[in-house]
Amino acid sequence: MSSSANAQDQQHPLEKQDREIVERLLRENLNDKNSAELARLRIRYRNFPGARDIQQSLDVILKQWNLTEEELFEKTRQLHAKGQVYQRDRTEDKQDWS
Q: Which helix (H) or strand (E) holds 73?
C-alpha cells in the first residue's frame, strides 16, 4: 500500500529550499526566529501529500525543543502580535541595554 501512496506523493515547489531551513533548525536551538520558521513550515506541510521526510523532521524538531504544536503556535502568535518575529537582533539589543 505504501508504494501506491508514495506514487501519488507530490513534490512541493519549495521543498529543496525548505529542506535547508529544516536542516538548520535541527542543528540550532529554540529562539523566536526559529520558532516562527518551524511554525511556518508546519503550516505549509500540514496535510501536504508528499515531503514526508520534511514532515518527519519537523516532528523531530518539536520533540527536541520539548514543544507541542499548539505550544509552538501559541508562542508564534504572541511573537506576530508584537511584530517581533524577524527582528530578533534588534530586540535582543534593546533587551541587553534596558
A: helix 69-82
